[in-house]
Amino acid sequence: MSEWSLQKFKSGSAQFEAAIEKMCSTCQTQASAFYSGEALAAASAELARKCGALRAEAGPSPSPPSSHEEL
């Protein structure tokens, strides 16, 4: 999934977070197919770092508006 594809989702939305999770899972699966041993461990660590940064940038899903909001 490209960065452009991720941009079509609203940042912070559940769909955006799901897209990031799918992308990270796909990358991990592909890394497992190409690497083994220490190379896989290094690739997995790098993927975890990058996916963590994406998750942090995406932020949490916005909470629904409260029915008791003050004006």
Lay out the secondary structure.
Blueprint lengths: L2 H5 L6 H21 L2 H22 L13
Helix pairs in contact: 2-3
Written account of the structure:
This protein is mainly alpha-helical and 71 residues long. The protein has a domain of 47 residues. 68% of the residues lie in helices and 0% in strands. It is built from 3 helices and no strands. Helix 2 packs antiparallel against helix 3. It is elongated, with a radius of gyration of 16 Å. It starts with a helix and ends in a 13-residue tail after the last helix. The relative contact order is 0.16.
The number of distinct helices, counting runs of at least 4 residues, comes to 3
Structure summary, number of beta strands: 0
As a percent range, the share of strand residues is under 5%
Structural class: mainly alpha
**Topology as a string of helices (H) and strands (E):** HHH
Described by strand count, sense and barrel closure, the largest sheet is: none
Q: Can you give the helix content as a percent range?
A: 55-70%
How far apart, in Å, are the first and last alpha carbons? 41 Å
The global form is elongated
Radius of gyration: 16 Å
Low-confidence stretches: none
Mean of pLDDT: 78
Name the features:
mainly alpha; 3 helices; elongated; 71 residues
Summarize the structure.
This protein is an all-alpha fold. 68% of the residues lie in helices and 0% in strands. Helix 2 runs antiparallel to helix 3 (37-58).
